[in-house]
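Narrative of activities, Objective 1.

The group set out to show that a structural description can be obtained from nothing but a protein's sequence at a throughput compatible with the screening campaign. Below is one input-output pair from the validation batch, recorded exactly as produced.
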Amino acid sequence: MDDRGCIGAPDLIVEILSLGNTKKEMSEKFDAYEESGVREYWMVYPSEKYVIIYTLNDSGKFIKKKTEPDPSKIHSVIFSDFELNLDELFAE
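Output recorded for this entry:
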């Protein structure tokens, strides 16, 4: 960080998607985040009530993380203390 903001790619990006997000837009962002070296990328789909987690492998490519054993909770791969309760996130 400097006085103008973040230097380099963030470690984690969490993106809340809306019905207005296009496949092309999401593909371009996915590619940009992967190329920039974002270590973990969460795509949150509120209308379908699920989250996809991608982590960067040693080759610089995103790998889709498998579903959690408890689907109501998800955990960050790079931040071991970060857990998200999906029931709370998607509560009406």
